[in-house]
TrEMBL record:
It comes from Paracoccus zhejiangensis. Residues 2-230 form the ABC transporter domain. Transmembrane segments: none annotated. The keyword Protease does not apply. GO terms for molecular function: ATP binding; ATP hydrolysis activity. Keywords: ATP-binding, Cell inner membrane, Cell membrane, Membrane, Nucleotide-binding, Translocase, Transport. It comes from the Bacteria. This is Thiamine ABC transporter ATP-binding protein. The keyword 4Fe-4S does not apply. SUPFAM superfamilies: P-loop containing nucleoside triphosphate hydrolases.
């Protein structure tokens, strides 16, 4: 279980508070207006932001003493965090060893992850030689290999067209299921939330609300959310 216990953070004039829990293995969308604090909430989990008060706990353990690299967390951003000068295989291999000194067994695992996302023939290409959808697959292969218990996504597929985005969300759901990951995904698109996330955290007025079932929330949104969704 992921728990925000009395978390308070101020960034300039901006304030965010969060008291909520997310069950292990849950898939949760994070939605709210621009500037409401969605990325901030993820930053508190990944450790790039530190709460002024309160604690973020994973499986009952306060994450505060752990640096971002030590946390049980993978993060995926819209730009897919691919290194342009490394090959596809090397980009995926970084998920196992940042120094890329991979053993033969680790190389096998990289090949297996690339095959899993349908890129077995592209290991030697550079990211720039791939389509947007293929680049997303490389990023997913790395996530698959890292197999960290918490997966945070910040509008990961925002640059893709609708059909490709749906395909990626389904692949992501499969991978999350396989690795038993707990997933939080920031999105501006309610259809993404419906497709991928049984539960949703709404952030508004400086507060991250506990997750609620996505379908009923979007079918009958509270006034703030309705205004934001344009309904
Ligand atoms: N270092 C900082 N100093 C002051 N204010 C900050 C800082 N970082 C972020 N903010 C403010 O915190 C608020 C929340 O930002 P955040 O990026 O979490 O919003 P968001 O909901 O992810 O927005 P978007 O949907 O536009 O990506 C914003 O109002 C932003 O301007």
């Amino acid at each position: 279980m992921l728990e925000f216990r009395g978390v308070r953070l101020a960034l300039g004039d901006f304030r965010l508070s969060a008291d909520l829990t997310v069950g292990t293995g849950a898939r949760v969308a994070v939605i709210g207006p621009s500037g409401s604090g969605k990325s901030t909430l993820l930053g508190l989990i990944s450790g790039f932001l530190v709460p002024d008060q309160g604690q973020v706990l994973w499986q009952g353990r306060d994450l505060a003493p752990l640096s971002p690299g030590q946390r049980p967390v993978s993060v995926l951003f819209q730009d897919q965090n691919l290194f342009p000068h490394l090959s596809v295989g090397q980009n995926v291999g970084l998920g196992l060893r940042p120094d890329l000194r991979l053993s033969p067994a680790e190389r096998e695992r990289v090949a297996g992850a690339l095959a899993r996302v349908g890129l077995q023939d592209m290991a030697d290409r550079r990211p720039a030689q791939l389509s947007g959808g293929q680049q997303s697959r490389v990023a997913l292969a790395r996530v698959l290999l890292r197999a960290r218990p918490l997966l945070l996504l910040d509008e990961p597929f925002g640059a893709l067209g609708p059909a490709l985005k749906d395909e990626m969300l389904d692949l992501l759901a499969e991978i999350a299921g396989q690795t038993d990951a707990t997933v939080l995904m920031v999105t501006h698109d309610p259809d993404d939330a419906r497709r991928f996330a049984p539960e949703t955290i709404v952030i508004h007025d400086g507060r991250a609300e506990p997750p609620v079932p996505t379908g009923p929330l979007l079918d009958d949104p509270p006034p703030d959310l309705k205004a934001y969704l344009g309904g």
